[in-house]
Every structure is written in C-alpha cells, then in structure tokens.
Amino acid sequence: MPWSSIGVANYSVRYLKELLLHVSVVPSVNQIKCHPSLPQQDVVDFCHQMGIHIIAYSAFGSTGGPHFAAPPIVALAEKKHSTPAKVLLSWHSTRGSSVLVRSNNLSRIKDNCELINLDEDDCALIRVYSNDLCKKGLFRRYVYPPFGIDLGFPDAAM
Ligand SMILES: NC(=O)c1ccc[n+]([C@@H]2O[C@H](COP(=O)([O-])OP(=O)(O)OC[C@H]3O[C@@H](n4cnc5c(N)ncnc54)[C@H](OP(=O)(O)O)[C@@H]3O)[C@@H](O)[C@H]2O)c1
To answer: Which is the closest atom of ligand 1 to the Cα of 61?
Structure first.
C-alpha cells in the first residue's frame, strides 16, 4: 500500500523545491531546528505556502538552554510573569508551528504543554533580535550535527 502522508526533517527551501519536483505526495510536516537565533523564516513561509506544517526542534537551543538568557526572552518572561521556556515555546504557536521539546523532568514536561499569549508587539521584540543577529551574521544552531553536505541553511554549510 503506498504511503498517503510523509514527513521530512531538516529540509531547507532549496531541498524542498527539489523534492517537490519528484514526489506525488507533498510532505505533511517538515521538522527543522528553529529558535530566535535561527528563525528559518524562509522555510516557515515556504512551508505555509505549500501546506506543510512546521515542527520546530531545539526551541531552547538544546542542552543548557542558551536562549533562556537572550535579552528579549528575559524581558518578555518578566513582562508576562512567566518563564523564558514558555516564551520560547509560545513564540512558535504565533508562527503556526508546533514544537518538539525534550525534557527528562516530569513537572517540566507537564509545564511545557501550557503556552502563554504573545501579541504582535511581543513577537516584534523577538523579530528585531533575530534580524539583528542576521545582520551581524550571527545566526547559529548551537548543536552542529555532521550533515556532510550543504543542506542550504543560513548558519551552517556542512
Ligand atoms: N530531526 C532532527 O534532526 C532533530 C535533531 C535534534 C533534535 N531533534 C528532536 O528535538 C527534540 C528537542 O530538541 P533538543 O534535544 O535539541 O533540545 P531542547 O528541547 O531545545 O532542549 C532540551 C533541554 O532543555 C531542558 N528543558 C526542557 N524543558 C525545560 C523547562 N521548562 N525549563 C528549563 N529547561 C528545560 C532539558 O532539560 P531537562 O531534561 O533537565 O528538563 C534539556 O536539557 C529532541 O528530543 C529530538 O526529538 C530532532
């Protein structure tokens, strides 16, 4: 029986376009590394256009949560009387994406299921931060798997 739905991971726009030339079934989801230091706006926009749902991983920047200390994330957590973790997770829902977050801690797993509301001004604060990193050539993924080929992402060629 042929597959009726498929998912892909780590597909940049370049590779999605190439893939779509060769498949009869458009992927349902694309799982990508995505956080304020690597917002992947081009992939998010292209996937929305093609009806492909984005699942973001490494929302915290992986082990150690380097994004918890990012200035706009700290500021928004204070403003919302919440936590940097919730700000980072909730940001994805404002973009129509889901998040795959990892925790070995039961109370955090439960806590990570509850999001907060971020309005346009809140999102603009994160966008300014991301755009500034982009201008400075500071987009980064924190964990660099040895892809072995250029996958077409802005932060890492290999
Ligand atoms: N498709 C791919 O190529 C790919 C690549 C990498 C990862 N992934 C998937 O993405 C998932 C998550 O990404 P990730 O592993 O990079 O890490 P992540 O979700 O960005 O961060 C995980 C870290 O955050 C901590 N954490 C979780 N909830 C927290 C909270 N509420 N407050 C403070 N700290 C918290 C965890 O510690 P505790 O355990 O102590 O809570 C853990 O050290 C992985 O499990 C994997 O399934 C996919």
So the answer is: 20
